[in-house]
């Protein structure tokens, strides 16, 4: 079943978040954090695709992940600096990895690279916390807060991306690139970044997203309050679909009882 999800967060030293640790988490590659003098060894088994996107003017050496991470940290001197934004978006389970890669590439190119920003992306196979047999593909996108050119990261930080309007733009475009992919593949599926109420859909209850901690607990077989709530929402939505189908096909209930 098609679903829309995009969350946007800030990687900030004020909140004790390290851009290097975040990149290690999504990539599974060993990285050293020079700012905090720590080395991260986290490995991933569900990584499907990892890629660095750079504007044309950026030096090729920035394709080296360790070098790129070092430069992101060096560009920020403040102890409370915002080093990057982190996006996490669900990808269509109905489409191939090739199409998922194209969705990510189109999104990153049009929203970040065209603006002089760079991006680090990782597509994860994921596991559906409700149905372990069904994959839950998603992408992590880490975008440093400074633009980059032939001289490296800009000395001046552009604050325009802090405006709320960009959050709305990024959310809408995430739906747009997926809908173009569905159309390209001949699928009569559509997702929207708008709430169910705005879309005029009142017979489906919006689901919730599990936090990273709850998701990891569910993967270990430990039931969480959020996981239980999500399962109940899923069950209620499935009941609504069945009831709607019976209303649309009044003879179906009789046929099933024979």
Describe this entry's structure for a reader.
The structure is a single chain. The protein has 258 residues and is of the alpha+beta class. It has eight helices and nine strands. It has helices at 19-27, 65-74, 97-111, 164-184, 196-199, 212-219, 225-248, 252-257, and strands at residues 6-12, 31-33, 38-40, 47-53, 82-90, 119-124, 138-144, 148-149, 152-153. The chain has a five-stranded antiparallel beta sheet, sandwiched between helices. A two-stranded antiparallel sheet has the order 2-3. The chain has a two-stranded antiparallel ribbon with strand order 8-9. A hairpin with a 4-residue loop joins strand 2 (31-33) and strand 3. The model is unreliable at 195-202 and 250-258 (pLDDT under 50).
Q: Could you say which structural class the secondary elements and strand pairing correspond to?
A: alpha+beta
Rg value: 21 Å
Q: Residue-averaged pLDDT, rounded?
A: 84
- Through-space gap between termini: 30 Å
Q: Based on DSSP secondary structure assignment, what is the total number of beta strands?
A: 9
> Strand fraction band?
15-25%
Order of H and E elements: EHEEEHEHEEEEHHHHH
Portion in helices: 25-40%
**Which shape, going by the Cα principal axes?**
globular
Low-confidence stretches: 195-202, 250-258
Individual helix count = 8
In the sheet with the most strands, the strands line up as: 1-5-7-6-4
**Biggest beta sheet attributes:** 5 strands, antiparallel
């Amino acid at each position: 079943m098609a679903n829309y999800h995009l969350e946007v967060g800030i990687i900030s030293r004020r909140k004790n978040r390290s851009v290097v640790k975040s990149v290690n988490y999504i990539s599974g590659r060993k990285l050293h954090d020079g700012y905090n003098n720590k080395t991260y060894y986290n490995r991933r088994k569900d990584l499907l695709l990892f890629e660095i996107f750079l504007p044309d003017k950026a030096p090729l050496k920035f394709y080296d992940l360790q070098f790129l991470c070092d430069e992101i940290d060096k560009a920020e001197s403040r102890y409370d600096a915002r080093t990057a934004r982190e996006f996490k978006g669900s990808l269509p389970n109905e489409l191939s990895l090739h199409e998922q890669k194209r969705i990510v590439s189109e999104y990153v190119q049009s929203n970040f690279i065209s603006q002089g920003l760079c991006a680090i992306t990782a597509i994860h196979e994921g596991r559906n916390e409700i149905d372990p047999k069904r994959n839950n593909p998603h992408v992590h996108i880490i975008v440093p807060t400074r633009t980059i050119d032939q001289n490296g990261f800009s000395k001046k930080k552009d604050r325009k991306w802090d405006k709320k309007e960009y959050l709305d733009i990024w959310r809408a475009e995430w739906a747009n690139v997926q809908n173009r992919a569905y159309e390209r593949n001949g699928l009569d599926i559509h997702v929207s970044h708008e709430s169910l109420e705005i879309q005029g859909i009142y017979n489906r209850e919006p689901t919730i997203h599990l936090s990273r901690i709850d998701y990891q607990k569910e993967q270990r077989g430990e039931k969480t309050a959020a996981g239980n709530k999500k399962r109940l929402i899923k069950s209620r939505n499935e009941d609504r679909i069945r009831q709607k189908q019976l209303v649309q096909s009044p003879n179906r209930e009789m046929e099933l009882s024979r």
